[in-house]
Amino acid sequence: LWTLVFGFFLFYLVDNAIKAASAFRELIASKNIQAEVMSSIIKVGEVALKGNDNFIAVENVALKTNLNKNKVQDERVEEECELEKILLVKSDSIINGLCPDEHTTSLSDDEVKITNVAWMIIFGDAVHNFIDGLSIGAAFTRGILSGISVSIAVLCEELPHELGDVAILIHSGMKLRKALVYNLLSALTCYAGFIIGVVLGGIGSADQYIFALAGGLFIYISFAHMIPDMNGKLEMELKQNFKNGLGIFFVQFSGILVGLVCLFFLATYNEQIHL
Where are the domains of the chain? Predict the structure, then answer.
């Protein structure tokens, strides 16, 4: 029991530590982006001031040339041409100096968001999948039936979970291929956990502690993520379309009921089932 409680609070701490680290990274990234924007604004202001200085210098030259009556027309035409060239060059430099900074800032902001999401997916799922592998490996040391039953339970939980992770990565702006690669990397820890679970499962009562730790993980995921998401989607659908909301409730209730019935029969008739 205490191992189960320890597993619950362990994954509570891990989950919130990952969220805190991601929030800290976003805060640092936003400060860097603000600094880049301020530096670009200062550069644009300096360019504008230089343009005004050049404009004043051209006006002074034009006034001086007016003193010379023999060259008034030629000097004014030349100065007006120079003025137009200077203003065009400075305006182009302002536009070209501002637009790339805005474009780069936008790209860096998107890249930071994608990086944070991918980082949370990799480390969060890595811990989760490692414990899944531990439980599967320890279950197979008890018997084939136990291993298959635990594998099916993990599959039923992991399939929608992994699909949701891929959907989150794609929604954040990541391409499908890269999202699948990140998801695959986070799933590789399951194999390491499986090997360790097989080794530890044959040592005394270590498998009981592994199952308790994995049970704490599943309980935390259920109460912290799955049930709140299910309730949120159900409430939203009931407000928008009551009939569709009832359909979603029936599907959710049926899934929970089928899972409980399967667990009941596996626990009750475990010794009578032979493979």
Answer: 2-268
Under a CB-based contact definition with an 8 Å cutoff, are residues 139 and 150 in contact?
A: yes
Both structure tokens of 65: 């040339």
Write out 82-131 in H/E/C secondary structure.
HHHHHHHHHHHHHHHHHHHHHHHHHHHHHHHHHHHHHHHHHHHHHHHHHH
Q: Which residues contact 216 (CB under 8 A, 6 or more apart)?
A: 3, 4, 5, 6, 7, 8, 9, 10, 11
Tell me, what DSSP letter sits at residue 202? T
pTM over 0.85: no
pLDDT, one tens digit per residue, over 97-120 is 444 444 344 444 555 555 666 677
Residue 51 host element (H or E)? helix 2-67
Q: What is the rounded distance in angstroms from the CA atom of residue 193 to the CA atom of residue 179?
A: 23
Beta carbons of 149 and 207 less than 8 angstroms apart? no
